[in-house]
UniProtKB/TrEMBL annotation, chain A:
Matches recorded under SMART domains: TBC (SM00164)
Name of the protein this chain belongs to: TBC19 protein
InterPro entries associated with the record: Rab-GAP-TBC_dom, Rab-GAP_TBC_sf, TBC1D19
Domain of life: Eukaryota
Species name: Rhynochetos jubatus (kagu)
Automatic annotation (TrEMBL), chain B:
Protein name: Polyglutamylase complex subunit TTLL1
InterPro entries named in the record: TTL/TTLL_fam
Protein family according to the UniProt entry: Belongs to the tubulin polyglutamylase family.
Single GO BP term: microtubule cytoskeleton organization
Record's keyword terms, sorted: ATP-binding, Cell projection, Cilium, Cytoplasm, Cytoskeleton, Ligase, Microtubule, Nucleotide-binding
Principal location: cytoplasm
Catalyzed reaction equations: (L-glutamyl)(n)-gamma-L-glutamyl-L-glutamyl-[protein] + L-glutamate + ATP = (L-glutamyl)(n+1)-gamma-L-glutamyl-L-glutamyl-[protein] + ADP + phosphate + H(+)
SUBUNIT field: Part of the neuronal tubulin polyglutamylase complex which contains TPGS1, TPGS2, TTLL1, LRRC49 and NICN1. Interacts with PCM1, CSTPP1 and LRRC49.
A single GO molecular function term of this UniProt record: tubulin-glutamic acid ligase activity
SUPFAM superfamilies the record matches: Glutathione synthetase ATP-binding domain-like
GO cellular component: ciliary basal body; microtubule
UniProt organism field: Rhynochetos jubatus
Region (Disordered) location: 390-426
Location in the cell: Cytoplasm, Cytoskeleton, Cilium basal body
């Protein structure tokens, strides 16, 4: 099919082009691209609203995010001064060569990382969130059952179970799910075979919107990599591979302070993880490139965050020597959101792009302060509200013994449960994140876990004991937990 | 089927907590070797003595041991290969479709052991094979050792001169079986994950060889090398690159004591299904089960099927980058040492499930029982092959493979290779 056709008439040109787009598959690609953008674009707001309002409509949230970023940058700078290491510097040629040679096995490196400390721990971030206050809101009342007993004290709107049931209707009891209806006891003819068949069709059609709808019921393992790529609109074109190679050469050429922080975090976390240790080397590659990827800056038009910027030593003020630091410089959480992807993609540039897209669509919201329904503040509030509403006795008991539930569940949500669930369960959970284009399911799962272990939790008498009851989530099956909590719990 | 009063009396000469804890939790009583015992978990040295002609040990009906008397037919590298070769030739002679060969003369269904020769006995045959492919790498393994001891790689004939039978300078006193070596074609294209080589350790319990009844433990694991794999000849001496034995890897700089370089088989399955697809993954696991069963069938005719015996083997399998599994060796005494916390739990459960099958109800055994435990006691074991079931053309117990959760054992097949029907796992 081609438009290089002398028979094409001017009168029918419009129709001919439309047909051409259809038959060549370009129409689908354009649709997918538009659909993809729609997922990321904020909803339209008032034409007179200034750009900061588009990013984040609440002034006090913007301010809080700004202070948080300043604090991080200050911490970074003081680490640099203490250790006499610049934030960024060019590598000498010999070092560049060495790094290039061991690009595929950076895990065997043993740099001295003892002096580096993580810039912040999840609980530091939680403290900041706990102290958020809306200055326009009269909050003189003592926390009580009539308002809110939890740690988050800002009046954001979060959904209740009725709304969640509607939103997550495809998780209902009458609807087949992977993670439940594909277990060994269920004959595959009931659901699994047909579901796989539909999935193959969706992939054949290359339809992003259909894929997003489809994965709400879970992805068959063999189809997951392609389905996620379709939803995220990643196709690994030659220009994408080239872009990745450019990032890689930036890494080789310049040494950033954050590199050491990345090493340290990966070494501390992934290298010791039962599932992810195998992929340690991929994690370095992806994260080192990511920290130099200025195209990620584009997404900040959708976020209230403004990333700290620095300049290569000696080139202050020269834009081409600028490097930026993503808002979450605690790579601990970062790294755990890359690791599960290594189970799906083993080609580095594709792995990189999938991760980057997951980051700018979802995961960045876990690390910045905003009023967005999928932002970490809302998730925390949603979790606490669900628990307080549906398990009030448990909530009260835990609070009384000094074990505010959020103190335990925060680390799960901020890492999207990575490193806590078994990998196959985590992937089933992330299927739904993609399917519903929202992180709210993380809060629902956190509440469901507490509900599941409620009996044991009612018996504990300290925070440490509560932590112990909830220390090991690796045997949990997420879909039954979610289904029971949303659809089978008497409220 | 009687119920005898009294607790099981146990002895062991392997001081491992995963064993002892299991005995104690059943309320069994520890006794000494020279006393009346019902259950003896022995090391391989001890089993030699128990069944040796000189000692004239006679086991009574209420005594069970954890090894078959001549397990070495399967667990010595040279004998295993010998038995498999013999088995293949027999099948070929009787015209069995299993022994079918392809246009290059390779067995289609039974080519699962890398080309292997005994040294010094087959030295000349080896040289002939080596010369066909002079750039190949071969792995030398002492027949009688374990844990990676004494293994080295060669890629030049000169490196094994001293095993040459004609060598005038050969000072080998290796007439004793301890010094015998096998040399196998080295699989230099192993499947890599995260750039690293790994092998599979699978546990297989055999309760009887004739009829063959064996169980596969669902929770096997992969053992990763800590160092990036490279086939480069300059690294042939670096055992951290090539040998996955934990006993070796443990001493590497990067050995990690939390996960011990181990992955569960279900992780492997998840990874392969996600990156390669379900069909090829199922095929791989089916083939793995196939080669285990074939290896057992190969030694079944020569095994002393003593009714007092059961055995839990550690199978070592390597997968190459074409997703073909290769049987490397079978261990009679798989390590019960735990290198990590997870390991300890796994081995504890392994022994627990093994004892539940071998010593039903934890009671004093009666060797006359039919060795057919009910399904409920299998724990993490799955029936791998039950010859009796297969021959009675019983209902197909189809345990379908499920992604991420099980090893996909195909259960009993209603056809036996003895019949002139092509046995496939699908």
């Amino acid at each position: 099919v081609s438009l290089h056709n002398p028979e094409i008439k001017l009168e029918s040109l419009k129709e001919d082009i439309k047909d051409f787009l259809k038959t060549s598959g370009w129409e689908k690609k354009l649709q997918n691209a538009v659909y993809s953008e729609l997922n990321v674009f904020p909803s339209p707001c008032h034409p007179a609203a200034p750009p900061e309002h588009m990013k984040e409509p609440l002034a006090y949230m913007r301010k809080a995010q700004g202070s948080w970023e300043k604090r991080i940058l200050k911490s970074l700078n003081s680490m640099c001064t203490e250790l006499s290491i610049p934030l960024a510097q060019k590598r000498p040629a010999s070092e560049q060569k060495e790094l290039l040679n061991k690009w595929n096995e950076m895990g065997t490196d043993e740099p001295d990382l003892s002096l580096f400390r993580p810039v912040y721990a999840p609980k530091d971030f939680l403290e900041v969130l706990m102290n958020l206050r809306n200055p326009n809101y009269e909050n003189g009342e003592q926390p009580s059952f009539r308002n809110h007993l939890g740690l988050i004290q800002v009046p954001l709107k979060v959904k209740d179970i009725v709304e969640l049931k509607e939103d997550f209707s495809e998780l209902g009891l009458n609807i087949g799910q992977l993670g439940i209806d594909d277990s060994a006891q269920v004959p595959p003819e009931f659901f699994e075979n047909e579901h796989i068949h539909v999935g193959q069709k969706v992939l054949a059609e290359q339809d992003s919107a259909a894929a997003q709808q489809y994965v709400r019921q879970g992805c068959p393992t063999a189809l997951r990599a392609d389905l996620w790529a379709l939803i995220l609109n990643i196709s690994n074109q030659p220009e994408d591979i080239l872009y990745y190679e450019q990032l890689k050469s930036n890494v080789i050429q310049h040494d950033l302070l954050v590199d050491s922080l990345i090493y340290k975090d990966v070494k501390l976390t992934a290298s010791n993880d039962d599932y992810y240790f195998v992929f340690e080397d991929y994690l370095y590659q992806v994260l080192l490139c990511f920290s130099r990827d200025t195209s990620v800056l584009e997404h900040f038009t959708y976020s209230s965050a403004t990333p700290p910027k620095s300049y290569i030593q000696g080139k202050l003020g020269m834009e081409e020597y600028a490097v930026f630091y993503p808002p979450n410089v605690n790579y601990n959480s970062f790294m755990l959101s890359v690791a599960p992807l290594c189970f799906l993609y083993h080609e580095p540039s594709k792995l990189y792009q999938i991760f980057r897209e997951m980051y700018v669509r979802f995961f960045f919201r876990l690390h910045s302060i905003s009023s967005h329904p999928s932002g970490i503040v809302s998730l925390c509030l949603l979790f606490e509200t669900l628990l307080q509403t549906h398990l009030p006795q448990l909530f009260y008991h835990l609070r009384e013994i000094g074990a505010q539930p959020l103190r335990i569940s925060f680390k799960w949500m901020v890492r999207a449960f990575s490193g806590y669930l078994a990998t196959d369960q985590l992937l089933l959970l992330w299927d739904r994140i993609l399917g519903y284009n929202s992180l709210e399911i993380l809060a629902v799962l956190a509440a469901a876990v507490f509900a599941f272990r409620a009996v044991n939790l009612m018996e504990v008498t300290s925070l440490a004991a509560a932590e112990a009851v909830l220390a090991d989530l690796s045997t949990l099956k997420v879909m039954p937990l979610l289904q029971i909590f949303l659809f089978a719990t008497v409220t | 089927f009687r119920i005898m009063a009294g607790k099981v009396k146990w002895v062991t000469d392997i001081e491992k907590s995963v064993l002892i804890n299991n005995f104690e939790k059943r309320g069994w009583i520890q006794v000494a070797e020279n006393e009346d015992w019902n259950f003896y978990w022995m090391s391989v040295q001890t089993i030699r003595n128990v069944f040796s002609v000189e000692t004239g040990y006679r086991l009574s009906d209420d005594q069970i041991v954890n090894h078959f008397p001549n397990h070495y037919e399967l667990t010595r590298k040279d004998l295993m290969v010998k038995n498999i070769k013999r088995y293949r030739k027999e099948l070929e002679k009787e015209g069995s479709p299993l022994a079918e060969k392809d246009e290059n003369g390779k067995y289609i269904y039974l080519d699962f052991v890398p080309v292997t020769f005994m040294l010094p006995a087959d030295y000349n045959l080896f040289v002939e094979e080596f010369r066909k492919n002079p750039s190949s790498t071969w792995i030398m393994k002492p027949c009688g050792k374990a844990q990676g001891k004494g293994i080295f790689l060669i890629n030049k004939l000169s490196q094994i001169k001293k095993w040459s039978r004609d060598s005038k300078t050969s000072s080998f006193v290796c007439q004793s079986s301890k010094e015998a070596y096998v040399i196998s074609l080295y699989i230099n294209n192993p499947l890599l994950i995260g750039g690293k080589k790994f092998d599979l350790r699978l546990y297989v319990l055999v309760s009887t060889y004739r009829p063959l009844r064996c169980y596969m433990y669902k929770l096997g694991f992969c053992r990763f090398c800590t160092v990036k794999y490279t086939p480069s000849t300059s690294e042939l001496d670096n055992m951290f690159v090539h040998l996955t034995n934990v006993a070796i890897q443990k001493h590497g700089d990067d050995y990690n004591h939390i996960h011990g370089g181990k992955w569960t088989v279900s992780n492997l399955r998840l990874y392969l299904e996600s990156t390669r697809g379900k069909e090829v993954t199922n095929k791989l696991f089916d083939e793995i089960h196939w080669i285990i069963v074939q290896s057992l069938k190969a030694v079944a005719p020569v095994m002393n099927n003593d009714k007092h015996c059961f055995e839990c083997y550690g199978y070592d399998i390597i997968i190459d980058d074409k997703l073909k599994p290769w049987l490397i060796e079978v261990n009679a005494s798989p390590s019960l040492t735990s290198s990590t916390a997870n390991d300890r739990i796994l081995k504890y459960n392994l022994i627990n499930d093994t004892l539940n099958i071998a010593v039903p109800n934890g009671e004093i055994p009666d060797c006359k029982w039919n060795k057919s435990p009910p399904k409920e006691v299998l724990g993490n074991y799955e029936v791998l092959y039950d010859e009796e079931m297969a021959q009675s053309d019983g209902p197909d117990r189809d345990l379908r493979s499920r992604s991420g959760q099980s090893t996909g054992v195909k259960g009993n097949r209603a056809r036996d290779s003895g019949k002139p029907v092509l046995t496939t796992w699908k």
